[in-house]
Design a protein that fits this description.
Layout lengths: L4 H13 L3 E3 L5 E2 L5 E2 L1 E3 L8 H19 L4 E5 L4 H11 L3 E4 L12 E2 L7 E9 L3 H12 L3 E10 L3 H9 L4 E6 H10 L5 H12 L9
Parallel strand pairs: 5-6, 5-8, 8-9, 9-10
Antiparallel strand pairs: 1-4, 2-3, 6-7
Length: about 220
């Protein structure tokens, strides 16, 4: 769910400007899943740009308090959201932990790194939502130790129907600073893509597993 249209458009503007998101409908990327994709998103690049990461930190902190209230702690999903989670936790003056995809196989065999206790409330930070599967594993790990997960906040989501269904099934509310629809709108408004390219991008989101570029 997008909380603020202006924030969504501005976030999309930043992501395009710094090339954290690239749109190439005529020269698509190949995802690890094997999908052809006209879009590639790497929000780690935002960390290298002071203005962008400051904007994301402040807007995400504000959105969390506005929508979920101030939790007891912030949790980042490893590894992409660790840095952003720390920035948000610092902004809110809260403890921070991060959650691995699975427990370590050595030492204390932790899946959750940092100090958090059963009964505490937490908001999970993610950098990017595709299907939501890996993100929701972090939610489950926190719930399994007795934490109350108020919800998840992310920088960007592709807005797949599968993602919405996965979050619904997990009973976890998701808020994001921007999403695919606002990204395409911003890219069109600024002349970053043509009408034909915009149509290709919209078609991809409908059936990403079957999409291929026009020859």
């Amino acid at each position: 769910m997008i909380l603020n249209k202006d924030t969504a458009k501005k976030t999309a503007e930043f992501l395009l400007q710094i090339k954290a998101i690239k749109l190439q409908p005529n020269n698509p990327f190949t995802w690890a899943s094997g999908w052809n994709s006209p879009i590639y998103c790497d929000n780690r690049i935002t960390l290298s740009h002071h203005q962008t990461r400051t904007y994301i930190r402040e807007k995400m902190a504000d959105a969390i308090v506005e929508h979920f209230g101030k939790p007891d702690a912030i949790a980042g999903v490893a590894s992409g959201a660790i840095a952003h989670g720390i920035l948000v936790a610092q902004e809110l003056g809260l403890p921070f932990v991060y959650v691995r995809p699975e427990p370590k196989k050595h030492g204390r065999k932790n899946q959750i790194e940092g100090l958090i206790e059963s009964g505490q409330s937490v908001v999970v930070i993610e950098d990017l939502i595709s299907t939501g599967g890996s993100s929701l594993k972090a939610v489950k790990a926190l719930e399994d130790i007795g934490c109350t997960v108020n919800g998840m906040a992310a920088i960007f989501t592709y807005g797949f129907d599968l993602s919405a269904e996965n979050f619904k099934q997990a009973n976890c509310e998701l808020i994001t600073l921007s999403d695919y629809d606002n990204l395409i709108e911003q890219a069109m408004d600024t002349g970053y893509i043509s009408d034909e390219e915009a149509e290709a991008l919209k078609n991809w989101r409908v059936a990403p597993d079957q999409w291929s570029p026009k020859k």
